[in-house]
Specification:
Layout (H helix, E strand, L loop, with lengths): L15 H16 L25 E9 L3 H8 L5 H14 L4 E11 L4 H17 L3 E9 L9 E12 L14 E6 L8 H11 L7 E2 L4 E2 H5 L7 H9 L5 E4 L4 H5 L8 E5 L8 H10 L3 H7 L4 E7 L4 H10 L5 E8 L7 E3 L1
Parallel strand pairs: 2-3, 9-12
Antiparallel strand pairs: 1-4, 2-4, 5-10, 5-11, 6-7, 8-10, 9-11
Helix pairs in contact: 1-4, 3-4
Length: about 350
Amino acid sequence: MLKPKTVRYRDAGVDIDEADRAVASIKKLARRTFTPNVLTDIGSFGAAFQLAGFRKPVLVSSADGVGTKLKIAFLTGRHQTIGEDLVNHCVNDIAVQGAIPLFFMDYFAVGKLDAGVAAAVVSGIARGCRNNGCALIGGETAEMPGMYRDGEYDLAGFIVGGAERAALLTGKNIQAGDALLGLPSTGLHTNGYSLARKLLLEVAGYGPNTMLPEVGVTVGDALLAVHRSYLKPIRALIAARLLKGAAHITGGGITDNTPRMLPAGLAAAIETASWRIPPLFEELRRIGNIPDDDYRRTFNLGIGVIFAVPASGVARAEAVLAKLGESPIHAGWVVDHKRGRPRVEYR
């Protein structure tokens, strides 16, 4: 009788040794983000974090992914910044609610694990966490043969922040006449990539190394520009008691995200002449002849966050932001919402 063939986990496509190498790198990167409130090391079955420094704490959480921006990382073989995109996106989502980021966890899933790629991705996550004062306290690295194409992976993150209950940014005090100030984005951030890839790589036939003369960088550089964090300017405006509400301009653009901070009965009047839309967006519009509505709901058009501040406090808000090297955009005004009209009107 023939002896049965030996089949190991590696023969099914899962390499535990490669996973161990990846985890060893991840541990080193994560430990550099730890704060005194982290009570467990990477590798515990659950991560423990001590909540301190709040009298009436509220936990604010968010989960998100990078979307099809990952496709650009696969195409270019550049994985060092995609994790930073993820962290900053999640940080912005809770920062506009008035929260300070406390800790972050990631989910990295791949068909065949490459410890070098995993370490590159997590290096970006760790950098984003350090820059935002946030601890990377755990996560999951899943190797699942047959689920993803060779060289591809998925990435998601979960963040928890804290705020004093009385200091939550709910937008409830926003009123007609308040000013809307925007801060510049650093490109597409993490939205609109399905359309951007189609236009640049398929319709225009560009490659990742194609130079975009109007933009001044290659297609790859333009599309991999890091989604920036707005935590510092948000905290500065809160400390100055000038911030009534804030909107992170992500999927849906200014059109869909600005109303999320406005109380019922109010709308936003956006002054389109108040800022110059960056060349990258205009190039995309030219290639696809994109209608205005799609254009405004797909891309951030150069504004990554919008603040509602009192009209009487605009000059002070500008001064606060200038100290951080920011150049705010006078994006428009809060107005009364007229029945049957959109919540955002472009003028």
